[in-house]
Amino acid sequence: MRFREAxxxxxxxxxxxxxxxxxxxxxxxxxxxxxxPRRLCGSxxxxxxxxxxxxxxxxxxxxxxxxxxxxxxxxxxVEVHPASSRHVEEVLRxxxxxxxxxxxxxxxxxxxxxxxxxxxxxxxxxxxxxxxxKKIAQRGLRFPVKQLDLDSxx
Length: 154
Prior knowledge:
Helix content: 25-40%
Structural class: alpha/beta
Shape: globular
Strand order of the largest sheet: 2-3-4-5
Strand content: 15-25%
Largest sheet: 4 strands, mixed
Distance between the termini: 15 Å
Radius of gyration: 15 Å
Order of helices and strands: HHEEHEEHHEHE
Oligomer: single chain
């Protein structure tokens, strides 16, 4: 399935698809790197799209589509958030919310191959090999980065 089809097939975010990285706020777009923008197949500001329907929920920030195989695009789910040890639980709550939302409310989006990434808004205050890193890794989330290289997703 293609990213755009999955977005438009998900009632809660239908109409929020944007070309390339246009669905990512300008302030956050600078935290992303992509040397081959043609590989990007769109983006969604998930936080904004679901603000009215889920006002008190810990919403995830963005979905970015990347051209994948002949049959499926890949989604990179991006959370832009401070990265100190005290923020780990908050980001994990957001991840749990996202996984539940994909399972129950957005099955078309949930069927696409996916990666979960955390972009740090400031200094990452925990280290590689720390218990915080182990905790997020157990949930399928990588160590926070200051800038995400979208070229690394194939």
